[in-house]
Short-chain dehydrogenase
Amino acid sequence: MDRVAVITGASRGIGAATALALAQNGFRVVVNYRSSAEEADAVVRAAAAAGGQAVAIRADVTAPDDVAALFEQTEQRWGRVDVLVHNALIPYDVTSFADLSWEQLGGKLNRELHAAYLVTKAVVPGMVSRNYGRLIFLTTILSRRPRQGMITIGTAKAAMDQFVRYVALELAPQGITANLVSPATVADTAASGLLKDEELRQIAAANPMGRNVRPDEIAKAVAFLASEDSGFITGHCVEINGGLAMD
């Protein structure tokens, strides 16, 4: 295996678990981070200990120059990008509609879509030239199942979901797949840190499996979508929610 994968927001949580899973599967992995350099370096060491190859590269995925530099460094080191896993968490406010400002909603929409646009634009030309690519975007069940206080992230991710479907439709003839992975509330992540302990317990209790999903469970689904075996799956949203939503 000599495939190269870039994972945004990979210094912790889902991104870190995905980096380790892909490294274990033989991918050369770029661990992107914005500010958590020590944690990103720890992920690189864990990947190396598992027999894989990894490097940490800092970039803010909402900043065009940072994104350009991220992929330039990747191509200089390993020649190409075969897999993009867009996992970076774009900050958002937890608020009711009554208290919601346009700056909160419009700002989240702009940053979410801008980041997805930037990273996708950066890798697609090379993928088209090789007639191969895997684009994987982390979304949330909140884009389809509203929950109090989550209007900014739910609305922004719903917009990103549709963006991904249009990308999938256009790129399918070039052998490039684009899919979404949608976990329910995830234990031990930055997003779950926005919730109170009692809220996390209530969410876990409401799940048919009686708990919240783990980062490694999401990473295994991402690893499948990044593999050769997923070549005829595109434009889909893989739900990892323990039966909470059955569409």
User: Anything to note?
Assistant: The CA atoms of residues 65 and 74 lie 14 Å apart. Strands lie at 4-8, 28-33, 53-58, 83-86, 133-138, 176-183, 237-240.
